[in-house]
Structure to design on (472 residues):
């Protein structure tokens, strides 16, 4: 097992060290990064470049283990309890430092403090967490969620509350399968909203939570779904684009309709009966959009994005996976709720069914369709689902059903690369862009200015904690 992990190389949860670094911070940052995300192992005695097993001195093993244990105890806060063991591979000793996902997040290096000493694991590297991620880790560590917090900028609106109650009941009635079931659906009341945590009763005064606001008038500029249709398989030419605002459940419906409008619809004739079906299972499309909205990180001031390409439908949700959850666990039905109030309401509305079944249904519906399974991946601080269109693999070219609503927008090669980098990491810096592109920071700034003038992107927030928002 361990030999196979070493052979596979470093990853989001595996890191190699030839020896224990003399400067402890070099590996302690990975210890706290693993504790803040999905856990992982530091394997000492393996070359991180060649993957060669060099081993450690068998006579020094227990001394090394004691040193690692003491260093982790002295340098990390809150306290992290590693599981440290010894294994023999190819006749050589290696030390395995296993770190489990922590419950008291955020974990950080004491000497650096919380702001500078908190690290997370992203794409096989341990990197500093920004203010948004630290705040999200704070919520996780104290078992709170953004949506259940009181929205101090808004006042309770009784009319909006009644509209929300009516909308929830309508969804419940529509989801009922028989007339008898529909008749059994009771009215949804303000007391129900209080019980679900959507409204809070503070000493007799009703106050709205963030969940209530996002489910009603929703004034937050970042709480929307951006949808776009692109020509080809890259973000080069825009054909159609829409931003959907308003209550979250309405955004989901509109984004779902947008995708259906821009994928192929076929028909099968069986005798006198005509059956229409889309090229992708509609259940998988809806599930991906629902999950992206329900489980997103609302502390991240980015939007959910739904992009339709010739070869795929791409749904991107702001925020890393919650609570140490891994992609493998999701596929097996694992689920952790980041936004409890919204999830509770969506469950009542039957937008969400039983916990942990949605992704499994997404995969099974694609298998029943006989198409490629969905692709799940973490991209920087975001989570993405790709649903691959069979029409592209069949003819290598897909034509949208509807005529374009806006003129195609052409970007130069550098601008396209910048857009792609931002799509993968909304918090990427101009310095990093310049390094990857092999151009000056001034040239990057010039192209970004042109993209902003074309209404392709905008900068939101400060230089340190802000992000790029692709306006699609």
């Amino acid at each position: 097992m361990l030999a196979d992990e070493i052979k596979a190389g470093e990853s989001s949860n595996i890191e190699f060290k030839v020896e224990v670094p003399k400067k402890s911070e070099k590996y302690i940052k990975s210890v706290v990064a693993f504790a803040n995300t999905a856990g992982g192992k530091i394997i000492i005695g393996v070359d991180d470049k060649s993957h060669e097993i060099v081993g450690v001195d068998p006579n020094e093993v227990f001394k090394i283990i004691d040193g690692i244990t003491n260093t982790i105890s002295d340098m990390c806060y809150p306290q992290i309890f590693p599981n440290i063991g010894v294994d023999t591979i190819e006749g050589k000793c290696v030390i395995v430092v296993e770190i489990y996902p922590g419950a008291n997040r955020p974990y950080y290096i004491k000497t650096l403090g919380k702001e500078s000493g908190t690290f997370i694991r992203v794409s096989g590297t341990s990197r500093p967490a920004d203010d948004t991620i630290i705040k999200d880790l704070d919520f996780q560590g104290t078992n709170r969620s953004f949506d259940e917090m009181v929205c101090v900028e808004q006042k309770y609106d009784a009319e909006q509350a009644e509209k929300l109650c009516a909308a929830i009941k309508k969804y419940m009635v529509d989801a009922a399968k028989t007339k008898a079931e529909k008749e059994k659906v009771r009215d949804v009341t303000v007391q129900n909203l209080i019980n679900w945590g959507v409204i809070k009763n503070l000493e007799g005064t009703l106050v709205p939570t963030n969940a209530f606001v996002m489910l009603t008038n929703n004034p937050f500029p970042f709480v929307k779904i951006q949808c776009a249709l692109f020509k080809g398989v890259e973000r080069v030419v825009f054909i159609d684009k829409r931003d959907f605002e308003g209550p979250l459940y309405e955004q989901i419906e509109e984004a779902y309709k947008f995708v259906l409008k821009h994928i192929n619809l076929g028909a099968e004739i069986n005798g006198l009966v005509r059956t229409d079906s889309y090229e992708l299972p509609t259940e998988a499309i809806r599930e991906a959009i629902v999950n992206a909205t329900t489980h997103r990180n609302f502390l991240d001031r980015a939007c959910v994005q739904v992009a339709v390409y010739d070869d795929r439908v791409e749904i991107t949700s702001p925020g890393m996976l919650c609570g140490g959850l891994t992609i493998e666990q999701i596929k097996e039905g694992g689920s952790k709720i980041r936004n409890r109030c919204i999830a509770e309401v969506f469950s009542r509305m039957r937008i969400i069914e039983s916990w942990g079944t949605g992704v499994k249904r997404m995969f099974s519906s694609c298998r029943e369709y006989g198409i490629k399974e969905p692709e799940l991946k973490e991209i920087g601080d975001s989570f993405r689902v790709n649903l691959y269109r069979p029409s592209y693999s069949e003819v290598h070219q897909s034509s949208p059903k509807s005529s374009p609503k806006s003129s195609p927008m052409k970007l130069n090669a550098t601008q396209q690369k910048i857009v792609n980098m931002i799509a993968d990491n909304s918090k990427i810096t101009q310095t990093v862009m310049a390094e990857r592109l092999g151009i000056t920071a001034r040239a990057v700034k010039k192209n970004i200015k042109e993209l902003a003038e074309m209404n392709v992107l905008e900068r939101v927030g400060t230089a340190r904690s802000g992000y790029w928002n692709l306006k699609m």
Notes: The chain has three domains: 2-129, 153-409, 411-472. The chain has a mean pLDDT of 91. The domain at 411-472 is CATH 1.10.10.10 (Arc Repressor Mutant, subunit A). The longest strand covers residues 92-99.
